[in-house]
Amino acid sequence: MSEDVVHPVEELDAPTETESTLFSDSESTPLVAAPSDEKDDPKADDVYLRTSMLGCYEMIEEVSRSKEKALPGASIFEHVEGFRQDLPYVMRFLKDCAEQGGTLLLVAWLVFRMLLAASPAISLYFSAQLMNFIQALIRQEQGATNVGYPEFYHVAGSVLLWRLVNVQAESFFDRNIERPLQHRINSFFEEKLFQAKARLDLPTSSNPIVEARFGDIAPDWVKNQGWRMLSVFAVVPSSILSIIAQVSVLYGLIQSEGGGWFALFAAVGPILDSFSWSSHDSKVFYVHLINPLLKRMKEMKAYVDQSHFRRQIIADGLQSFISKEYHRARAALTLRSMGSAREIYYDRKTLVETVVPFVTALLDEAPTVLFAFQSLHNGKALPLASLTLISSTVSSITWQLRETGDEFQSMTGFHKNVRALYEVMEWENEMKDGELSYPKDEKSEGMKIEFRSVSFKYPREDNDVLSDLSFVIQPGQLCVIVGENGCGKTSTVNLIGRMYDVTKGNILIDNVPIQDWRGDDLRRTQAVLYQNFHHYRTTLGENIGYGDIDQLQNHERIRACAEAAGALSFIEKQPSGFDSEVYSQYSEWSELSNIKADGPLQKRIDELERSVHLSGGQWQRLAIARTFMRVMRDEKDKNAPNTRLLCYDEPSSALDPKAEYELFEKLRTERGKRTLIFITHRFGHLTKHADVILYMKEGRIIEQGTHAELVALGGSYANLYNVQAQAFQ
Predict the structure, then answer these.
(1) Which of 143, 166, 564, 720 lies in the 20 to 30 Å Cα band around 186?
(2) Averaged pLDDT for residues 372-395
C-alpha cells in the first residue's frame, strides 16, 4: 500500500477560498498570455494552452493561433490535404478488408446494402396504398367511391407480403452477410493489434504516449470504429439512395393530395434542430481532477471498492475513519461540483444551441395547428390519412438526412483514424535490436558480463538510479549483489537482460556491446527470477512450463522441475494437480440478483470459479521451478540453447531458513557451469562461497571483492554482515 497512503484532511468542512473557486464554470483563460518574442521558429508560439474550469476539473486545451485567425472554409482545404496524405493508408485498409472479408462476401454486402436502401421507399409506397384504401372507404360512405373486398385483399396482401419479405431479407443480410463480414474484419485487426502490443519492449510499452495510442486504438475501438471505416463507404451512398427514393414517393403523394406546404413546415423543425448540434472532435484537450475534496471522495471510495485493500483496512481499523472522511468530503461539495467533467462540458451551450430547441419545439406543432386552421377557414383540408403519412415520412427523411450528414462528417475524418490504426500496428520499439546471434561460441561455460562506467535512469525520470557503475563477472562465476533497498540492485539486473538501454557507459556481454546482440537470443540463454515475480493466468503446470516454451508439453520435465524446487508436494495436493487453474473466473454474462445463497447454481458457480490459493513461499517455489526448466533443458536436450546465466533477485524472500539453504545448495552446484548472480539481503553461506560480491549504495558500487576480502576491509559490507551475525550469537 505504499502508493495508496491515507492522508487526513484538515478542516474539511470549510473549503478554502481556492477550493471554492473550483466549482465555477469560468470562461477560458490562456496559460500563455502573450506570444513569445522568439523569432527562430515561426511555429514555436503558434500553439498555446488555454485552461477553463469544469466544476472540480481543469480543462487544458491546445489552441492554434493560426487556426483561430484562419478564413472561413480553410478547414475544408485542410481535410482535402489530410486525406491526400493519408490515402495510402486508406487504400491499404480497403485492401485488407477485401482480403480478410472475402471479395465475394464484400460484394454481396455492398449489393444488399444498396437493395435494402430502397426498403423505406417501398414501405412508404405500400403505406400510401393502404392509406388511400382507408380514405376511399371514408369517401364510399359519402357515395364518392366504390371499393370492396377484392381491393382490400389486394392492398392488405401486398402490404403483408412486403413486410414479410423485408423482414426476412434484413434478417438474412444481418445473419449471413454483414455479421460474418464484420467478425472477420474485427478479428483480423484485433489480432494485428494484439501482435503489435505483444512485441513492444519495456521502455516503449511504458511510454504514456504509446499507452494512450493503444488505449485509443484498442480491440473495442476496432469494433466500434474500424467497422465503421468500412461501412461508411456503403452507409453514406445507401442513405442518399434511400432518401432519393423516399422523396420520389413522397413527391407523388404530395402531387396527388396537395400538402406541399405541410411537408415544408414538417421538415423545418428537424433541419433547424440539426444546427444546434456542435462537434468537439477537432479539439485537443486534457481534463484532470484538481479539487482536493472530490479527490478525497474518490480515494476513500477506492479503498472500499477494491478488495485488495480490505484486509489492510480492517487490520489498521480504518473502516470508521474512511466512512467519516467520505461523508465530510461529500458534505463540503455541491451537487453540481460532483458532476462529471463530460456532463459539465456538454451542458455548456452557445446562444444558438439555447434558442434553437425552443424554436423547434414550436415548429413541431406548427403543421398540425396550420392544418386545423385551414380546415376551419376553407372548410376543406388535406385528408387526415395523408396528413399523418406525410408528417411521419418527412420527419423520417429529415432525420435520415441528419444522420447521413453525421456519417459524411465522420467520413471526412476517418482517414486520420485509419492512419492511426496502422501507425499503432507498426509502432517501432524505442530500443533498436542487434543483429548478432547469441551465443557465438556454444562451448563456453557461462556468460561474461562487464559494466563500464554505466549510468542509468528510467525513461521519463530525472534522477539516475545507477551512477558510474563498473565491474566484471567472469564466465561461470558466482556473484552476489548486496545493499540496502533502493540502491539499484534490481536495476542492474534489468540492464543485464537489456530490459532498458543505459543512459551512459557500456555493457559488454562476452566482450561484445550488449546492443549488438539480438535481444531474444540473449534472453533465451538467461533464466531470471525477479523479486516481484508474477504467476500466469493458466494452470500450475504451465506456470512452470513457460520457463521453456518449447517443452511446454513435456510433463515429465515440468514435474522434475517442480520436485527440484520443492513445489511437487503442494501441487499434488491441489484438486486437479498440475492442471489446477490459477485463475478460473471467466464469467461472460450473468444475472444473479435473485440467486439462492446455498442453491445448486451457487454451488456450481463456486466449482467453476475455484482457483488456486498458495502461500508466498509456495508461489516463490513455483517461480523458481520455472527457471529450472532452462537449467534442465540443457541436460536433457543437447540441441537446446545453452543457458549461460542464472539470475535470482531475492529468491528466498518468502522461504524459511531450511528451504533457503536447500535452494542455495542446489543452485550452487551450477557454479562453474553457468554464471550465477544473486541479489539478497541475507548474508550467510551464499556470500561465503561467492567469487565476487558487489556492495551497492545509492546506485554506486562502493565495495567489491570476496567475502574474506570485504570482511577484512572492515567497511560497509563487514558492518552489515556483523549486524546479521550478532542475531545468531
Answers:
(1) 166
(2) 65
The answer to whether 629 touches 545, Cβ cutoff 8 Å, is yes
* Main-chain phi, psi angles of 676, to 5 degrees: -120, 130
DSSP alpha helix (H) spans, 333-383: 341-347, 351-378
Quote the CA–CA distance of 578 and 698 in Å, as a whole number.
43
Is pLDDT at 384 greater than 70 in this prediction?
A: no
63: phi > 0 → left, psi -120 to 50 → alpha, else beta; which? beta
Q: CA 477 to CA 123: how far, in whole Å? A: 84
Task: Write down the H helix ranges in 199-259.
Answer: 202-205, 208-216, 219-221, 227-257
State yes or no: pLDDT of 175 exceeds 60.
yes
Q: What is the H or E stretch that residue 557 is in? A: helix 555-564
How far from 241 is each of 119, 397, 400, CA to CA, in Å?
Answer: 10, 12, 11
The Cα-based distances of 708 to 153, 482, 671, 688, 693 in angstroms read 109, 15, 19, 8, 10
Contact between residue 650 and residue 638 where contact means Cβ atoms under 8 Å apart: no
Spatial neighbors of 155 by CB under 8 A, at least 6 apart, are 129, 130, 133
Q: Could you tell me the pTM of the whole model?
A: 0.69
- Residues 216/224, Cβ–Cβ less than 8 Å: no
Q: Taking 70 as the threshold, does the pLDDT of residue 405 lie above it?
A: no
Which has the closest alpha carbon to 304: 29, 4, 508, 604? 4
- Hey, which of 191-205, 212-226, 275-289 has the most confident mean pLDDT? 191-205
Q: Which residues contact 235 (CB under 8 A, 6 or more apart)?
A: 113, 404, 407
| Set of cell numbers at residue 641 | 540453447
At position 26, the amino acid (one-letter code) is: S
The pLDDT score that the predictor gives to residue 8 is 39
**Res 187 pLDDT > 80:** yes
b/e map 179-190, b = 16+ CB within 10 Å: eebbebbbebbb
The count of other CB atoms within 10 Å of the CB of residue 316 is 12
Sheet strands side by side (includes 57-64): 29-30, 47-54, 57-64, 284-289
pLDDT for 259 equals 55
Q: Amino acid identity, residue 593?
A: S
Is 283 in a helix, a strand, or coil? coil
- Which residues, in sequence order, are CB contacts of 336 under 8 Å at separation 6+? 23, 55, 344
* Residue 213 binned pLDDT confidence (cut-offs 50, 70, 90): confident
Do 250 and 266 contact (CB within 8 A), yes or no?
Answer: no
Reported as type and span, the H/E element at residue 198 is helix 179-198
Average pLDDT over residues 407-429: 77
CB 584 within 8 A of CB 609: yes
Which backbone phi and psi does 360 adopt, to 5 degrees? -65, -30
Residue recorded with cell 446455498:
598
Q: How far apart are CA 270 and CA 500, in angstroms?
A: 58
CA distance 657 to 653: 10
- Domain coordinates of the chain in residue numbers? 17-71+283-347, 74-259+382-425
Judged by DSSP in three states, 443 sits in coil
CA dihedral 699, 701, 703, 708 (to 10 degrees): 100
Residues 6+ apart with CB under 8 A from 494: 202, 500
- In DSSP terms, 57 is beta-bridged to 54, 289
Burial class of residue 548 in the structure, from the number of CB atoms within 10 Å of its CB (0-12 exposed, 13-18 middle, 19+ buried): buried
d(CA 52, CA 28): 4
> For residue 634, is pLDDT > 80?
no
Closest CA to 22 of 338, 469, 319: 338
pLDDT category of residue 72 using cuts at 50, 70 and 90? low
